[in-house]
């Protein structure tokens, strides 16, 4: 299948928000604390898109997943309890979510590989991300794609596991 990874537009917001709401409910059903505090919300998605950070994975005209991607724009990462693998520029992504009807197809991995390509096109050779300790799906993807555990970072009062992958 041919996927496209493109910048999201304002017209994509209703579909993106539906996908994120599905993911929030899945996290809750899994017994996770992640995304159960009113974040992410529609205002966050609108801000992502206004800032040029929102990206969608599509097949044809169908949006399959959403994420926010940025360079060096994560202040919480400066205070890691641990150590990053690199000290230079990095791409960071947040809010990875796949449409419920598309689960089990490896799309989260496909999207993370697209982010790696995006990083290299921007001449950045480090990709960083974090997730909750109780998100086994994302933890497994990090392991599968060769990310290294670097320590903990803190968001909204909660510790998150932080990972980095150095790209060639």
UniProtKB/TrEMBL annotation:
The keyword Transport does not apply. Residues 3-168 form the N-acetyltransferase domain. The keyword DNA-binding does not apply. InterPro entries: Acyl_CoA_acyltransferase, Bact_Acetyltransf, GNAT_dom. GO terms for molecular function: acyltransferase activity, transferring groups other than amino-acyl groups. Keywords: Acyltransferase, Transferase. It comes from the Bacteria. This is L-amino acid N-acyltransferase YncA.
């Amino acid at each position: 299948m041919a996927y496209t990874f493109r910048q999201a537009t304002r017209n994509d917001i209703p579909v993106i928000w539906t996908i994120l709401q599905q993911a929030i409910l899945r996290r809750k059903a899994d017994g996770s604390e992640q995304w159960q505090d009113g974040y992410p919300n529609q205002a966050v998605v609108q801000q992502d898109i206004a800032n040029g950070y929102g990206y969608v994975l599509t097949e044809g005209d169908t949006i399959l997943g959403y994420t926010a991607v940025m360079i060096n724009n994560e202040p919480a990462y400066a205070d890691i309890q641990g150590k990053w693998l690199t000290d230079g520029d990095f791409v960071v992504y947040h809010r990875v979510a796949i449409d419920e009807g598309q689960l089990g197809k490896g799309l989260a991995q496909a999207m993370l590989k697209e982010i790696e390509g995006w990083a290299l096109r921007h001449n950045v050779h480090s990709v960083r991300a974090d997730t909750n300790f109780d998100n086994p799906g994302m933890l497994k993807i990090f392991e599968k794609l060769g990310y290294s555990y670097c320590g903990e970072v803190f968001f909204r009062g909660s510790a998150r596991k932080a990972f980095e992958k150095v790209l060639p």
